């Protein structure tokens, strides 16, 4: 089992490699699900590829966002350059972009991002069959679900084991997008989940903010035992010390060394085991949503009884009863029971603090000097090496030869050097195999580490140590170049889907309903195409929830296993380009796709002619989130944040939660102009509406009196 480590820049990349990660995921500037990270230029990316490959590590490019066709074509030159330089894999969310890349860059691995929300073995197997080699499962999966998926698919599985938890299923979170055009599916999430909210009882809290997850020894052992291929550490925007410390921790756990975690000493907004053992309310942290550090005690005046060790140089933060930051400082003196010259203090000690801000209640250690110093020192000292095999031949009267063999891109590569001087008969001490292996194995100043070494040395011969070292150095230098070059390949002729002319056509008005009462109203108004909405997530342990007779598919499972051959694919599958539409159409079951309401009218118009019919949402109380937890006791709760955004949280029958925006999307006033978008169908999506409210929407559509709100259709997304 390998560790997939994050790298947001070169410094973090080096930290991940030095900590022992064999797989690194990194983004290009301007693309991927962490566009706010520093990320890499093309030249930096090539440099990182060579550095990793020379040490036996792989690099995965993060292009895990929804894409337009223009963006695919724009990114082609950079992707071609990385492919030819030896890029190992691409992590992708968009099915269409996967197909585009697979056609253009076939000799590369493709990994399904957690943004794809692959929650069961049917969907995982589908990805494998169309050409994916790995899938990153949602963080919401329990161990038992992961185990069942592992038992029923051959695709590689990657599991998040640490770092930030999105409260919503990744890929199905639209709150940031609909509120302010910053799309999580475009790598620009503004994190409205981390804001302070007030509920209908006037209670305040960080109601949508989970703690970070941090699996321990038992969880890693379980994942290793069932054959999970890789575990993933989140943190492309975390600092190098965090990356090094966390990767080192998991490397120990994989090697079955049960060590104490120190990640919480570097970044801490609370930790839990996530969903590993099921839905656990301990996942949430309503008191604060940001990195405060580690709680080390409650103040009594200026006296603090410690619950954790502190040393000189630690940073501390003072907090009020409401966890509001009141100030902070570094500890430069430690006073215990009147003794002032202490270098550290232990749990249970009571220390006296100076200059405590008024109103302080809690003290958090926001900077651990010991942990950060240890990480920085080890980053300077540690390295990762590629194991080489060797063969040394020394025959009397002949030039000696040394061969080093290493694993390259697809096969082993080797280099052989000959010594400058023929092997002589020894006058005194003879060269032994042990001596040769010792000298030739001193590779500390290279990227290699000697493994097996075969020798063929005549008895009673002599060779100067200087020649052995020279041969070793020359062989290693040439092999290092050959290893990097062994990953190079040539891209085939560029492929792009041909564009066909498209004509406007007559629009069909249809609806999605949440209940039979809504459907009855629509029938009264002559609406014939009525779809019944389902559950967005097809979770391995709850597949029986999915209605496979429904024509509306809200996830890949519901599409793949559907009993109909005229299925309508819902908008939460994030369809934004022709390639995705064509890929879904290949299932043989798709009649219509509902395009994502995240994209603009211009982007919809530019999609072009497709085999499947195209539809858009004309009216909807937009769903912003689907959450695996029952967040509130009430069946329906209204929450408001400090920016005035009003949201409705609805508890579902399966104890999940859906979050809806207050103000509906409504472009029905322009119904007669919408054919210019080259679409076939406009859909009214009803969820929380009463029958009377459904009637009002239709009345307003007929009279063009509704309140027009186009959301991202007009403003687009970042």
Report on this structure.
It is a single chain. 26% of the residues lie in helices and 24% in strands. The chain is α/β, with parallel strands linked by helices and 718 residues long. Strands 1-2-3-4-5-6-7-11 form an eight-stranded parallel beta barrel, surrounded by five helices. Strands 27, 28, 29, 30, 31, 32, 37 and 38 form an eight-stranded mixed beta sheet that branches. The chain has a six-stranded antiparallel beta sheet with strand order 9-8-34-35-36-33. Helix 2 packs parallel to helix 3 and helix 9 (240-254) packs across helix 10. The longest helix is centred in the middle third of the chain and has 21 residues, at 465-485. The model has no long low-confidence stretch (mean pLDDT 95).
Characteristics:
eight-stranded parallel β-barrel; eight-stranded mixed beta sheet; alpha/beta; 24% strand; 718 residues; single chain
User: Quick check: average pLDDT?
Assistant: 95
**Main sheet: strand order:** 1-2-3-4-5-6-7-11
Number of DSSP E strands: 38
N- and C-termini, Cα separation: 36 Å
Calculate Rg over CA atoms: 30 Å
How would the global form be characterised? globular
Main sheet: strands, sense, barrel: 8 strands, parallel, barrel
Low-confidence stretches: none
Q: How much of the residues is beta strand, in percent?
A: 15-25%
Helix fraction, binned, reads 25-40%
SS element count, helices: 18
Structural class: alpha/beta
């Amino acid at each position: 089992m390998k560790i997939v480590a994050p790298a947001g820049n070169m410094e973090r990349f080096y930290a991940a490699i030095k900590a022992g990660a064999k797989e690194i995921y990194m983004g290009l500037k301007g693309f991927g699900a962490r566009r706010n990270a520093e990320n890499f230029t093309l030249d930096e990316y090539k440099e990182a590829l060579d550095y990793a490959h020379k040490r036996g590590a792989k690099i995965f490019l993060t292009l895990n966002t929804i894409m337009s066709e223009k963006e695919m074509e724009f990114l082609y030159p950079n992707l071609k350059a990385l492919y030819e330089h030896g890029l190992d894999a691409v992590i992708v969310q968009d099915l269409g972009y996967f197909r585009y890349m697979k056609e253009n860059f076939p000799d590369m691995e493709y990994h399904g991002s957690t943004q794809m929300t692959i929650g069961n073995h049917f969907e995982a197997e589908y990805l494998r069959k169309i050409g994916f080699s790995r899938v990153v499962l949602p963080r919401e999966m329990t161990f038992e679900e992961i185990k069942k998926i592992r038992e029923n698919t051959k695709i590689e599985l990657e599991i998040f084991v640490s770092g930030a938890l999105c409260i919503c299923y990744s890929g199905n979170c639209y709150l940031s997008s609909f509120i302010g055009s910053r799309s999580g599916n475009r790598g620009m999430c503004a994190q409205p989940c981390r804001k302070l909210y007030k509920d209908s009882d006037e209670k305040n809290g960080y109601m949508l903010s989970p703690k970070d997850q941090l699996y321990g020894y038992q969880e890693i052992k379980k994942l290793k035992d069932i054959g999970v291929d890789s575990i993933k550490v989140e943190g492309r925007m975390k600092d190098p010390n965090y990356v090094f410390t966390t990767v080192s921790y998991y490397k120990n756990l994989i090697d079955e060394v049960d060590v104490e975690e120190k990640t919480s000493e570097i970044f801490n907004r609370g930790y839990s085991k996530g969903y590993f053992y099921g839905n656990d309310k301990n996942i949430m942290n309503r008191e604060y949503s940001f990195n405060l550090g580690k709680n080390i005690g409650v103040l009594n005046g200026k006296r603090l009884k410690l619950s954790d060790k502190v040393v000189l140089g630690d940073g501390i933060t003072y907090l009020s009863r409401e966890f509001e930051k009141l100030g902070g400082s570094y500890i430069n003196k430690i006073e215990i029971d009147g003794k002032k010259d202490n270098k550290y203090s232990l749990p249970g000690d009571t220390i006296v603090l100076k200059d405590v801000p008024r109103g302080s209640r809690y003290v958090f250690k926001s900077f651990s000097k010991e942990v950060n110093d240890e990480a920085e020192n080890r980053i300077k000292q540690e390295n990762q090496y590629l194991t080489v095999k060797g063969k040394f031949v020394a025959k009397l009267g002949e030039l000696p030869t040394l061969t080093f063999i290493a694993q390259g891109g697809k096969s082993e590569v080797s280099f052989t050097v000959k010594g400058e001087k023929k092997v002589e008969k020894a006058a005194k001490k003879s060269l032994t195999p042990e001596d040769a292996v010792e000298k030739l194995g001193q590779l500390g100043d290279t990227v290699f580490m000697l493994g097996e070494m075969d020798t063929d040395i005549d008895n009673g011969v002599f060779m100067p140590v200087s020649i052995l070292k020279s041969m070793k150095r020359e062989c290693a230098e040439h092999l290092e170049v050959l290893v990097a070059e062994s990953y190079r390949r040539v891209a085939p002729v560029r492929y792009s889907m041909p564009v066909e002319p498209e004509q406007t056509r007559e629009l069909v008005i249809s609806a999605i309903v949440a209940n039979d009462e809504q459907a009855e109203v629509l029938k009264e108004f002559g609406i014939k195409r009525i779809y019944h909405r389902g559950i967005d997530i097809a979770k391995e342990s709850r597949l029986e929830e999915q209605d496979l007779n429904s024509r509306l598919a809200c996830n890949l499972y519901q599409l793949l296993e559907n009993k109909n051959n005229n299925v309508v694919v819902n908008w939460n599958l994030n369809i934004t380009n022709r390639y995705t539409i064509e890929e879904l159409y290949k299932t043989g079951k798709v009649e219509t796709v509902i395009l994502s309401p995240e994209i603009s009218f211009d982007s919809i118009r530019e999609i072009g002619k497709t085999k499947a019919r195209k539809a858009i949402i004309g009216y909807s109380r937009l769903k912003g989130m689907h959450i695996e937890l029952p967040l509130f006791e009430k069946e329906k709760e209204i929450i408001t944040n400090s920016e005035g955004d009003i949201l409705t949280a609805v508890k579902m029958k399966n104890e999940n939660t859906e979050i809806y925006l207050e103000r509906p999307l409504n472009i029905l006033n322009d119904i007669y102009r919408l054919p210019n978008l080259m679409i076939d169908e406009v859909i009214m999506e009803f969820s929380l509406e009463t029958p009377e409210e459904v009637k009002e929407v239709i009345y307003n559509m007929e009279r063009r009196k509704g309140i027009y709100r186009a959301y991202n259709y007009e403003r687009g997304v970042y």
